[in-house]
Design brief:
With about 325 residues, the protein is α/β, with parallel strands linked by helices. It is about 45% helix and about 20% strand. α2 runs antiparallel to α10.
Length: about 325
């Protein structure tokens, strides 16, 4: 690293001496286990930042809820007590309401389409909304399609969900979607889910395959339905004030590291998804794959959510996302 950059980094972020002994430190947290592709991408970010800065910028990583759950990490980044985090965009809608468009059921037809849209003008528009709320986007990551599990019975058609207490993220679109399907939706942070299922407080949950595997939910759940009703997009975010105070050369290092981490995460997540599904079957989960007719019924029953949230999300934004999927 040029001496000028090292000096600039020190002077910019360590205002009160003794500056020479200080380093720029980025604390980066997430709520998923170390083996999850998001946590591994966080490590890629760390490696790239430290390599590109020759150690002038240090990144400390905290996977597996070491600094709290997703909502905790979001609030910490917002206030600046934590510099960066990854979490489901579903948790961010309180600060960035338009991110709620990602929560609509059956929005994206496949991964390739999702990231074509997110890397284009629509995604950039939402990243600007994030900046206005105080968050610098480090990239849209993913955690796979969400699928239903429960301890009571196979779910082959929507009617099978009737009365089941299903844990969801505390997100109005998700909660309304499962209400329309006849379930009893229960908002809950992921750190509470295992015990709640074990104790019978809830009957089931919906999560990507790798969450169900890595968090050992299969130990307290018997039935898995391949529904793919939501695409679990993750936001890798940084406190914008912290980012804006970095010298330009340091910002470029962060940006390059974020691109490398994003590329790794997306590639790895797609590979992991299939592997986690196969492992859940080996663990003994009873798998139900819905027929095309049943899946069409799920889509039909949840379609009113699009209309109900037009005021909150913006009709134009919803229509542009729907059109981009065609």
């Amino acid at each position: 690293m040029p001496r000028a950059l090292a000096l600039a980094l020190t002077l910019a972020l360590v205002a009160a001496a003794p500056a020479a002994a200080q380093e720029i430190r980025i604390r980066f947290a997430g709520n998923l286990p170390p083996e999850n592709s998001n946590s591994r991408a966080m490590e890629v970010f760390k490696q790239e930042v430290e390599r590109r800065s020759n150690g002038a910028i240090r990144v400390d990583t905290f996977p597996a809820m070491q600094l709290g759950g997703a909502k905790d990490n979001l609030d910490q980044v917002k206030t600046g007590t934590l510099q960066a985090a990854y979490l489901s965009t579903a948790f961010m809608t309180g600060f960035v309401p338009k991110l709620g468009v990602f929560n609509l059921p059956f929005l994206f037809k496949d991964r390739e389409t999702a990231f074509r849209i997110l890397d284009g003008p629509l995604g950039q528009e939402l990243e600007r909304e994030m900046e206005r709320a105080g968050f610098k986007s480090l990239g849209f990551w993913e955690n796979g399609w969400r699928h239903i599990t429960n301890s009571k019975r196979p779910i082959a058609v929507p009617e099978d969900l009737a009365g089941l207490k299903i844990r969801l993220q505390n997100n109005s679109v998700h909660l309304r979607t499962f209400k329309l399907l006849g379930a009893n939706p229960v908002p809950m942070d992921i750190k509470e889910v295992y015990a709640a299922m074990q104790q019978g407080v809830i009957d089931g949950h919906e999560n990507p395959f790798c969450n169900t595997l890595n968090l050992k939910f299969y130990e307290v759940q018997k039935y898995l339905t391949v529904s793919g009703h939501f695409y679990d997009l993750m936001g890798a975010i940084m406190n914008k004030r912290f980012y804006d105070r970095l010298p330009r050369d340091a910002q470029q290092i962060v940006d390059a590291a974020a691109r490398a981490a994003t590329e790794f995460q997306r590639r790895q997540a797609a590979a992991d998804d299939l592997g986690c599904f196969e492992e859940l079957k080996r663990k003994g989960m009873q798998v139900t794959t819905m027929s095309p007719a049943a899946l069409a019924r799920f889509r039909e029953l949840t379609r009113p959510v699009y209309r109900e949230f037009e005021r909150e999300l913006g009709r134009d934004l919803i229509e542009r996302f729907v059109a981009a999927n065609r």
